[in-house]
């Protein structure tokens, strides 16, 4: 099934780079630069080949300096108040200071998971579309 | 700038009388808690600006750019590796890379097509691979072995067995990569690209290969 994905090699490479960044940071937390370099190349490849990054990957890479955001190692994660009865998660990159904010909204559904994001095809093609969904860049289980 | 004077005592006599009567009654109705003298003071000879005020230069908001410029990146030393690196730290990276290559080639076995593997390796990532310099125009590079940490446009940064970071230019060298018995020669002069650009580029199959 996975063999007929179009840019399989590129997806594999992206996956490898992301995992390598995690691997390098896990073995030596001092080595932020190398992890950043891997994330930077990953970002560039996906930019050049126009491959969509999964939100779970995108949310762990700093937009400004491309470093991998691992809570406690390269980033701080805080809960902040923003409105009444609303909290947000603020992730701050420790090397450049850029922040990311996420509203704590349990009912939020990612655009890719919503039914209207899938293009509407006649029924005969709909099965193919489901199988051609690009593989999600998965984190290593560590 | 347009100025308008509320002048109740000038103008032609008939009009001004009518206007005065109208204004007086209007002011009495709207400002009933003020006394007449005060009302007079309010209405006499006052300049009223009818157009909006011009506040000098408009403060232009600077466009906030999210990214960093190349100069800033260089100054912050974002990708600058420290010279002391331990080789043992990167052994897991090497394991990861081997798995990745096996995945890429659908499992390396003796009967798989070498050309297919070559074409896949061309676009693969080499971070984490163990390479050896086999040929080089500079003889002191020959024989150095290490794990690739960083691949830039012109240079490989590798960690040698003696825990030292070495910078080896790609030009004029031939590198050897070995995975599961497959030995691949990489001609550095043809490889002078950013590692991120290589996956998008189309390589020409034939060409003279020189050092
Ligand atoms: Zn950052």
TrEMBL record, chain A:
One cellular-component annotation, GO: nucleolar ribonuclease P complex
Residues spanning the membrane: none
Biased composition (Low complexity): 117-128
Gene Ontology MF terms in the entry: metal ion binding
Chain coiled-coil ranges: none
Ranges of compositional bias, category Polar residues: 129-142
Protein name per the record: Ribonuclease P 21 subunit
From TrEMBL, chain B:
Stored SUPFAM superfamilies: Rof/RNase P subunit-like
Highest taxon, organism lineage: Eukaryota
tRNA processing in keyword set: yes
GO CC annotations, alphabetized: nucleolus; ribonuclease MRP complex; ribonuclease P complex
GO BP terms, alphabetized: rRNA processing; tRNA 5'-leader removal
Molecular function GO terms recorded: ribonuclease P RNA binding
UniProt entry keywords in alphabetical sequence: Nucleus, Phosphoprotein, tRNA processing
tRNA processing as UniProt keyword: yes
Compartments, record wording: Nucleus, Nucleolus
Similarity section: Belongs to the eukaryotic/archaeal RNase P protein component 1 family.
Task performed by this protein: Component of ribonuclease P, a ribonucleoprotein complex that generates mature tRNA molecules by cleaving their 5'-ends.
Assembly and oligomerization: Component of nuclear RNase P and RNase MRP ribonucleoproteins. RNase P consists of a catalytic RNA moiety and 10 different protein chains; POP1, POP4, POP5, POP7, RPP14, RPP21, RPP25, RPP30, RPP38 and RPP40. Within the RNase P complex, POP1, POP7 and RPP25 form the 'finger' subcomplex, POP5, RPP14, RPP40 and homodimeric RPP30 form the 'palm' subcomplex, and RPP21, POP4 and RPP38 form the 'wrist' subcomplex. All subunits of the RNase P complex interact with the catalytic RNA. Several subunits of RNase P are also part of the RNase MRP complex.
Protein name as catalogued: Ribonuclease P protein subunit p29
Annotated organism of origin: Erpetoichthys calabaricus (Rope fish)
Source species taxonomy: Eukaryota, Metazoa, Chordata, Craniata, Vertebrata
């Amino acid at each position: 099934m996975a063999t007929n994905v179009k840019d399989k090699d590129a997806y594999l490479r992206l996956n490898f780079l992301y995992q390598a960044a995690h691997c390098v940071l896990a073995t030596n937390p001092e080595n932020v630069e190398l992890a950043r370099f891997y994330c930077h190349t990953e970002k560039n490849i996906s930019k050049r080949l126009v491959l969509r990054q999964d939100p779970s990957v995108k949310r762990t890479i700093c937009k400004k300096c491309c470093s991998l955001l691992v809570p406690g190692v390269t980033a701080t994660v805080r809960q902040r108040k923003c409105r009444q009865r609303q909290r947000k998660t603020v992730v701050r990159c420790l090397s450049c200071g850029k922040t990311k904010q996420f509203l704590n909204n349990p009912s939020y559904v990612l655009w890719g998971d919503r039914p209207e994001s899938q293009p509407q095809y006649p029924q005969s093609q709909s099965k193919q579309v489901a199988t051609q969904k690009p593989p999600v860049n998965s984190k290593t289980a560590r | 700038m347009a100025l308008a004077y509320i002048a109740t005592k000038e103008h032609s006599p008939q009009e001004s009388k009518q206007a005065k009567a109208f204004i007086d009654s209007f002011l009495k109705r709207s400002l009933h808690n003020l006394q007449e003298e005060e009302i007079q003071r309010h209405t006499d000879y006052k300049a009223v600006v009818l157009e909006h005020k011009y506040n000098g230069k408009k403060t232009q908001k600077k466009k906030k750019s999210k990214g960093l410029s190349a100069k800033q990146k260089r100054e912050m030393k974002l990708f600058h590796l420290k010279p002391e690196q331990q080789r043992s730290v990167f052994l897991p990276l090497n394991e990861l890379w081997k798995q990745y290559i096996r995945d890429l080639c659908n499992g390396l076995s003796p009967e798989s097509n070498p050309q297919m593997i070559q074409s896949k390796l061309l676009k693969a990532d080499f971070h984490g691979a163990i390479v050896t310099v086999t040929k080089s125009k500079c003889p002191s590079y020959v024989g150095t072995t290490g794990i690739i940490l960083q691949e830039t446009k012109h240079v490989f940064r590798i960690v040698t067995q003696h825990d030292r970071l070495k910078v080896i230019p790609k030009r004029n060298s031939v590198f050897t990569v070995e995975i599961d018995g497959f030995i691949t020669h990489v001609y550095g002069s043809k490889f002078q690209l950013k590692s991120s650009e290589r996956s998008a580029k189309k390589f020409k199959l034939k060409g003279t290969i020189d050092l």
